[in-house]
């Protein structure tokens, strides 16, 4: 029953992905392909900083020395921005997809269709790939959405390419690594590069907080038997008035929900919760992000994912639930699960 009263905040963290009922429309309907945006030769000696690329957690007083140059990092991403014209087009499409009176209502795009319309131009992608390879990186993949390129390389190559040293930092009782300054990129790429990611082991923090009973706030509604406060899935259905939808046959059947995380979970915890809450036991389908390391449990992150899995599977009781999570590779996190 412990998990039953850790439910606050479930709603904002679920990421529903309706995989089974997507309706696609042809890329031929698009007005035009992305324009070439790299206008000059890529000159490594002429650089501009990527503002905000240094982590605020990388504080000089916590500096624990430089990361060895031979250390290799996998899964580095260079993300591309959209042109102003593309962004305006995307905003209009999103609005139309949510307008029941629009012919584009709920007409979703495949990643390939998205890339053909909103991604980096086909003429620019090989130039970025070639630049990375000339610097010694291994290009691993180009995303189908043409929004980013994934590559790998050593710390020495990263520092040479982006003009900032990577250092260790002691923070929160743990040792992390991160850039010691903002990265810089060639001016020729400044109009297309939005960010370079997975070059830091600082990760998003879970919002779950554990309190000892004597320090816990007293809720207004408590059990008449134990004095404890519980918010079970059926309570959520009452609070958010979901029962009329259930009675009309809407249980999530035929739909899929993707829950993202940065820790493995113990499936028996989810099973015990479902049993205690009066539901049929139904395990989520776990998917480990490729190249993100070995599956491992991280306590705070696990509790966050437990809540998401338990309440999504109980509230969307007919849906298929997928759990996409990262392993113990330090520079991977929940953003890679979302991607």
Please, could you describe this protein's structure?
The chain has 339 residues and is an alpha+beta fold. It folds into two domains: 2-21 and 206-338, no CATH class; 23-197, no CATH class. It contains ten helices and 15 strands. The strands form five sheets. It has a four-stranded mixed beta sheet. The chain has a four-stranded antiparallel beta sheet with strand order 7-8-5-12. Helix 8 (267-276) packs across helix 9. The longest helix is centred in the C-terminal third of the chain and has 17 residues, at 299-315. It is globular. Mean pLDDT is 86; it is low at 1-30.
Question: How would you summarize the topology of this molecule?
Answer:
Blueprint: H1 10-13, E1 15-16, E2 23-24, E3 47-49, E4 63-66, E5 72-80, H2 84-97, E6 107-108, H3 111-118, H4 125-134, E7 138-142, E8 148-154, H5 155-162, E9 166-171, E10 174-179, E11 184-186, E12 193-197, H6 233-239, H7 243-247, E13 256-261, H8 267-276, E14 285-288, H9 299-315, E15 320-325, H10 334-338
Parallel strand pairs: 2-6, 13-15, 14-15
Antiparallel strand pairs: 1-13, 3-11, 4-9, 5-8, 5-12, 7-8, 9-10
Helix/strand order, N-terminal first: HEEEEEHEHHEEHEEEEHHEHEHEH
Strand content: 15-25%
DSSP, total strands: 15
**Gap between N and C termini, in Å?**
33 Å
Oligomer: single chain
Average pLDDT level: 86
- Rg over CA atoms: 23 Å
The major sheet is characterized as: 4 strands, mixed
Give the low-pLDDT segments. Answer: 1-30
Number of helices: 10
